[in-house]
Amino acid sequence: MRNVYLDTTIPSFLVTTRDDALSAARRQMTLRFWESYAERFRLFVSAYVEAEIAAGQWPGREDALARIAALPRLPVTPAVDVAVATYIRTHLMPADAEGDAAHLACASVHGMDVLLTWNVRHLANPLKVDRLQVINRRLGLVTPVLCTPEALLEDDDA
Fold this sequence. Notes:
Elements (H helix, E strand, L loop, with lengths): L1 E5 L2 H7 L5 H17 L3 E6 H8 L6 H8 L4 E2 L3 H12 L8 H12 L4 E3 L12 H11 L5 E3 L1 H9 L1
């Protein structure tokens, strides 16, 4: 059974009220993952996910928090802090995307098999994988597979 770290986009898309075509498609794929496939994996979040969801007032916020309430939290450790700083210092992640660096660091430090996200700009970006692997090797970390629910379902169905 694979260990999967969920970044904030996953519980957020479970409850999104956005009705544009892309958001609706992502919501449907995320719901399909959550309802039909999630039990095939060990799911994890971190305090970063909880804090990002809890920030501000938005439709679905309480539902998103409820959906992750029972999931185990990966601890934020000094090693996570070092990885975040390294990802930003090496420009793998921009400084304004510190949350993305934190999700990546949590998944890497804790040896997750997969980091599941809809963030294709900073996280599930195939153009960053080679650099991430080099940086993680230097840090002595495992590099998780960075993918969307759609890609994970395709892989799991194969």
